[in-house]
Amino acid sequence: MKAWFAVLGAALLSGCGYVGPPLPPTLDIPVTIGDFRAWEYGDNIELEFTLPDKTTENLTLTSVRSIELRIGENPADSKLVELPLAKPGPVTDQIPAQMWIGQTVLLAVRATGPKGKASDWSNPVSLAVIQPLATPSTPKPQNVAKGVELTWTGTGPHYRVFRAEGDGQPQQLADVDGPPYVDETTSYGTRYRYRIQAIAGDRQWSVVSEPAEITPADTFPPAVPEGLSAVPTPQSIELAWTRNTEADFRGYNIFRSTGNGPFEKIASLIEAPTFSDSKIESGKKYRYTLSAVDLTGNESAQSAPVETTAQ
Asked: What is the three-state SS of 289-300?
């Protein structure tokens, strides 16, 4: 019987795992926020950061008890602002800028875990808060030869131009000191939307203006041809002039007047800057002029006329 109990005891002991000393409770302190950003936008100070999903003990953090903002000219005199709760991940928020105008404030944020333990303060951000910049007027886009010209009104020291192509998202296009601004990177037939923002520094911005839309079209003729000359030979009158340099140039139209009669077109869309007129009569006076035409069909005004007498 004693032997049987001994075997049973050994079996029971062999089936039990070793139980060590109890582990201390977790603190659930959120990891310190390291990507805090702040800037002035219109009447507000905008805030952006990532709320961590880990604790300092590398455990998963699914919620926090509170999120605090510290703001003031120095940490000792800072004001604490309770921010709305958020889940771990990207967070954006804002506070009114009014009470900080004229001050250079230092801002930081921190989170308090579910057990009431707060993280360290985030990376600090220094921000000079200025009188809010007024929103510029809706820009007025105009189709011009070099692209799209934008005009607007505003009181900002500088401006940022945004452009969206078609139904795409707006992209920063240029920083300028004021209107007008000519966007020379447009394409005919493409729809564009423009917005304007007043800026005073790297992080002092107005609210962005309402959008204005335009689809530029090629309504601009080539330059009027220059340097036309007419030289008579025994069989013809030879015309020559300076070649146009437009990228969308197509050709020249040639016009002739006999005596003092009206000008009539005698050739269309001549590509070379020369023309030989052999349909002439000896002793008659002829006058010539020409125009330039582009690929869209836009035609320039006619050049200054020249005259000569056929041999």
From this structure: EEEEEECCCCEC
